[in-house]
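Entry:
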Amino acid sequence: MCVHNIVIFGAGKSSVYLIKQLQGDLDCKLTLVALNFSELPKELVKHKNTYLKVFDVTDTLVIEKLIENNGLVISMLPASLHIQIAELCLKYTKNLLTASYVSEQMKQLHEKAERKGVLFLNEMGLDPGLDHMSAMQAIATIKKRGGRLVSFKSHTGGLVKKPKDVDAWNYKFTWNPFNVIVAGAEGGTYLQKGKEKKVLYHSIFNKTEKVQVGTGFYDSYPNRNSLNYIEKYGLENCKTVYRGTLRHIGFCKAWNVFVQLGMTDNSSFIKLPQKSSRKDFLNYFLNKNKDVVGQFCEQFKEQKQSSVFNKFDQLQFFSDTFLLSITEGTPAQILLSILEQEWQLTQTDLDCVVMLHEMEYELEGVKQKQILSLYVEGEDRHYTAMAKTVGLPMYEAARLMLKNKIGLTGVQIPTNPIIYIPVLKQLKEKGISFFEAF
């Protein structure tokens, strides 16, 4: 039996299903690399075929040795760190698998990877990843039937399952917390009825639309530049192309207050007095000559009984007793320090992943509509829906790469049927399947 040596850089909480599945393959030996392994269940870190490496990924010599000695390299690191890994993969002729968007720097490595005969497969998680594959399969099916797509809308959200005693925000961190804080900062661009629409950051959480998935309703706000998907998905004839991020109803309206205040800004530096409270932090962005509650209600036209006010009250922004854990940094960093205390998944919380594709097309002169929806619920605070929908697509891709079943080289994403057909087939057997309606 051929043993596959695999190294996973940045093996954190989003990789638990990926690790578990690979550990279940008798022909795989894993090396996990991270600053610490506190987010991983004990049964994963103590597995007989798994080796742990605890160190900072800026240690180039150690990274180089690991890449040289392993057959497949998987990076779960932040996207900005992938290039260092990718260049070493080129040096040692190793295939690379990531869940991140393809950066401009990564694109520049395409021809070099082709010449080396290696595959750098990116965007292989949930969003991006599962969204690409499910959309491409549906689009291909419509086109095969002779349909002409005129509208494509897609929405994805990593959320917390609503408890019986409803939390005011209905949100917990199920992926990189800092990315949640700065989400939407790039604004949003999409195509609506043939016209390009651009939404700037200060307006993005006001530009929501309500969508229904199953029996649930959600707000969707524009996700980055949807126009990039026209060519990727073959949507040149579409008059509407939109990709959105889902949140429970009411979240976006309240989050917009953080944006308008400037609390999500990560470009400026502020310094508050020691022992400042959350109320002091809020007051820093308000008119300091008035009482915080009164100024907040006046500035945002809210009543003390309103949903938005209750959300900020639940986070203790009107209280002097909750002190900040850090008092200097960017506003986004200070806000993150508050929300990390409040929005961590507890032992009783369950997360969920929701995805919706809405497609309109013409077939033999008749307008038709197809809807694909996905709902995945987590098992517990470790085996989350987010980890499942990120990790299992990566696992299936890894197995294809190890068996040399893909046959592509260079920098790729899973929009090719040679990738998405077998991956989606295996995911369906593992319980990740879409409900389809026409």
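The radius of gyration is 23 Å.
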